[in-house]
Amino acid sequence: MNIIKATVAHSKLISEIGKKAFLHAHGKSAPKEDIAAFLNNYYTEEALFNDLSSANNLYYIIYSEAQAVGFSKIILNEANDHVMEKNITKLDRIYLLPEYHGKNLGASLFNHTMELSKKQGQLGIWLYVWTENEKALRFYKKSGFQIVGSHDYQISETHTNPNYILFLKY
Question: Angle 49-152-113 (CA atoms, 0-180°, nearest 5)?
């Protein structure tokens, strides 16, 4: 296993992983045309190139036996109205290809991401999680996160999914 910091050169790779992982986790959360709109907004090579170009967005890719199998994205110092602490990180994305679930790779990427946040002087980390993603909810609650609010996550112009806002203070 190896984790590296992603650059704009990884745009296509992250796009491919993101599409597969998002469809696996959220593909049935909205009508097909809404899911397609979401993927076209966030998981094209161009969209990822632009996102990776921002200094605020930190992406990391996890490899297993030289195969890229997942990625994370954090944003440092990203406030949330439901969290009183300052200097906190948003865990914006963490995805692992479904065939690599259960191999402790997701936990390794998550722990790596948490350590990066802490090393930057952050006091905690927050994220959105779809209320019906029971596997993710179990993982985050087991890791010490608390539900601090709710958020309607915009999938398309006409569809939102109910999400919890979770927070973990370091």
Answer: 50
Q: How far is CA 74 from the centre of its chain?
A: 7
- The sheet that has 160-169: what strands, in order across it? 2-5, 57-64, 67-75, 88-96, 124-130, 160-169, 146-154
* CB count in 10 Å sphere of residue 156: 16
Q: pLDDT tens, 7-29?
A: 999 999 999 999 999 999 999 99
**Position 131, amino acid:** T
- φ, ψ of residue 49 to 5 degrees: the values are -60, -45
**Cβ atoms within 10 A of the Cβ of 157, count?**
9
- Residue 106 has a CB neighbour count (10 Å cut-off) of 22
Question: What share of the chain in percent tops pLDDT 70?
Answer: 100
Give me 21's structure tokens.
Answer: 């992982």
Sequence-distant (≥ 6) Cβ neighbours of residue 148 within 8 angstroms? 80, 82, 83, 126, 165, 166, 167
Place of tokens 């370091």: 170
